[in-house]
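User: Run a structure prediction on this.
Assistant: Running it now.
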Amino acid sequence: MGDLGQEAQRLYENRLMNTETEVRNFEEALEELYRSGNYRIIGGLCKAFDDQTEQDEVMWGLVHAIEAFDGEEACAELVKAMPEMLERANEWLKLLTRRILNHKDYRALYGATLSKADKRTKELLVALLNEIKDKNPTKYEASVLEVLMYLT
């Protein structure tokens, strides 16, 4: 990835956005990564999520950048990166997952992709899906069950 790797590192290093300089560096790195059009950056984008950030509204740029990618390869990159988010960015991970659950086409793709993931990834993400379902069954039970159907 060359320069993209450097930009992903810059994004990660400035993820807390405690200063104006960190916010600017984060936004510039995100723009460079997004302009690449390379779905392989999704892992780097996911690493930059952090629940401790000072700038939630800027962090939303990561959500939108990830959502700009579609297709099996992009979804596979996202699924692969999601478990790493559990400790540092659990709330952002839940938000991304809820957005997937609210999107019919991506929900099916997510279920199919999750079915091909390694055992640890499946276990972690199934637990997360069930947590989301249990917290708001009226809104998410049907969509979570639809995703889990791919795992049987």
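Residues 14 and 25 are 7 Å apart (CA to CA).
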